[in-house]
Design goal:
heme, 2 domains, Peroxidase, domain 1, Peroxidase, domain 2, heme binding, two-stranded antiparallel sheet, lactoperoxidase activity, mainly alpha, calcium, 2 strands
Length: 325
């Protein structure tokens, strides 16, 4: 009986690993594409010299990919019918430079290692590389993902955090991806880079509530700056930095901004205004090492979300097209 039970336990462990989450490995391509990380890093660095947008665009692309269908490069698919993941309303603001970075890296990898490396893994590596280029920490990226076979715009709604979310809503959507509140706060630190279009936060300036036109949690001087940059009925293409202090550096100033009432989104500022999350924000604001460590852990956990491994998915030749398309 004991032998039978032990056998069942081993079988269950095997089945868990077969589902994928435990099958990513550092140095996954050591024998099949040993120069992979160097190739991707070179392409990302070259792209960065052309435009800084490469950095926030690639990092955001990774997040948006993983939260819908898992980290499987499904966000990269281009559909002639305009019904792929990237065509969803929540993804229309993804900057083209993120897509271009991954596409160029894939093309370079294919020259040396044809048909070996997934677009999903290249995106994961590129996300790490752009953080480093912006002055942030480095980490070992777990690899072995395969590219997904599904990319539908209809699957995006409700799976990405909204700029007006409160803490409970943020925790709920992150928990769906096995990420804790601590992980969520750490990953929010990515807002130390990049930009946002005015319509994503204009309600905080012009129509916050019946009792206050301007969100009272905003620092008054910061609110004035935002109004000057984003007047009512402004051109929808206008965008501003999410971090008003050090927008081109990956650092912990994002959290210092939250403490000072300079969080751009409601979902940013709530991290400090809610007593349940405030201690973590205060710690990250004071201790950059703590933030960096938490960010690394959270990024590695994010990279395991919904991965396809083994016989699942495919290895695309072109990141924008399914293999048999």
């Amino acid at each position: 009986m004991e032998v039978l039970q032990r056998g069942l336990v081993l079988l269950m462990v095997f089945m868990v690993f077969q589902r994928g989450e435990g099958q990513l490995f550092e140095n996954f391509y050591r024998g099949t594409c040993p120069n992979l990380e160097m190739i991707v890093k070179q392409v990302v660095s070259t792209k960065f010299t052309q435009t800084f947008v490469t950095i926030p665009a690639t990092l955001r692309l990774f997040f948006h990919d993983c939260f819908v269908e898992g980290c499987d490069a499904s966000v990269m698919i281009a559909s002639p019918n305009g019904d792929a993941e990237k065509d969803a309303q929540d993804n229309l603001s993804l900057a083209g430079d993120g897509f271009d970075t991954v596409i160029k890296a894939k093309q370079a990898v294919e020259v040396q290692c044809p048909g070996i490396v997934s677009c999903a893994d290249i995106l994961a590596l590129a996300a790490r590389d752009v953080v480093v280029l912006a002055g942030g920490p480095s980490w070992e990226v777990e690899l072995g993902r395969r590219d997904g076979l599904v990319s539908q715009a209809s699957k995006v709604a409700g799976n990405l955090p909204d700029p007006e979310f409160n803490l409970v809503q943020l925790n709920t959507i992150f928990a769906k991806n096995n990420l804790t509140q601590f992980d969520m706060i750490a990953l929010s630190g990515a807002h130390t880079l990049g930009f946002s279009h005015c319509n994503r936060f204009s309600n905080r300036l012009y129509s916050f509530s019946s009792s206050s036109v301007v969100d009272p949690s905003l620092d008054p001087n910061y609110a004035q700056q935002l109004m000057q940059a984003c007047p009512q009925n402004v051109d929808p293409s206008i965008a501003i930095n999410m971090d008003p202090e050090t927008p081109r550096t990956f650092d912990n100033v994002y959290y210092q901004n939250l403490v000072s009432g300079k969080g751009l989104f409601t979902s940013d500022e709530v991290l400090f205004s809610d007593p349940a999350s405030q201690p973590t924000v205060s710690d990250f604001a004071s201790n950059p090492g703590n933030f960096n460590g938490a960010f690394i852990t959270a990024m590695r956990k994010l990279g395991r979300v919904g991965v396809k491994t083994g016989n699942e998915g495919e290895i695309r030749m072109d990141c924008t097209k399914f293999k048999d398309a």
